[in-house]
Amino acid sequence: MTGPRADGSPAHAGLPVPPDLAAVLDVVRGLLTEPVPAWGPGQADVPLADLGFDSLRTVRLLVEVETALDVELPQDRVTADTFRTARTLADAVHETRHAHG
User: Fold this and answer.
1) Can you tell me the distance from the alpha carbon of 71 to that of 54, in angstroms, rounded to the nearest whole number?
2) Using one digit for the tens of pLDDT, what is the confidence trace for 16-72?
3) What gap in Å lies between CA 77 and CA 79, rounded to an integer?
4) Please, which contacts does 38-42 make with residues 24 or more away whose CB atoms are closer than 8 Å?
5) 33 or 10: which carries more pLDDT confidence?
6) Are 57 and 31 a contacting pair, CB within 8 Å?
């Protein structure tokens, strides 16, 4: 994993947003109780707990992501690490989609 650029922006800033990440960010935004002023790919690494995701809301996020992205995460992927950030969740979705392909 790389650190921030010299200007302080994340190393992945300016890169295209993978479709799974964009979709997960949309679902996360829809479940927020309070809007985040500058919502977008920059929030992909914000801990979901910092956005108000407790255990109940995280279960709802799982259901919403599986429905919206037409994917079922295997039980061994339903972990605290998977639901740490939108990016870790999108990575799990991507890996699940491509595990057998």
Assistant:
1) 22
2) 788 999 999 999 999 998 887 788 888 999 999 999 999 999 999 999 999 999 999
3) 6
4) 41/17, 42/10, 42/13
5) 33
6) yes
Query: How does DSSP assign 30-94, residue by residue?
Result: HH-SS--TT-SGGGTTSBGGGGT--HHHHHHHHHHHHHHHT----GGG-STTTTSBHHHHHHHHH
User: Minimal CA–CA distance to 28: which of 12, 11, 14, 42?
Assistant: 42
Structure tokens at 42: 């920059």
Count of CB atoms situated within 10 Å of the CB of 97: 13
Beta-carbon contacts of residue 3 (< 8 Å; ≥ 6 apart) = 11
Amino acid identity of residue 79, one-letter, is T
Q: Which two tokens stand for residue 52?
A: 């108000």
Instruction: Check: CB of residue 83 under 8 Å from CB of residue 53.
Output: yes
**Measured CA angle at 25 (ends 59, 19), to 5 deg:** 115
Q: How many residues does the chain have?
A: 101
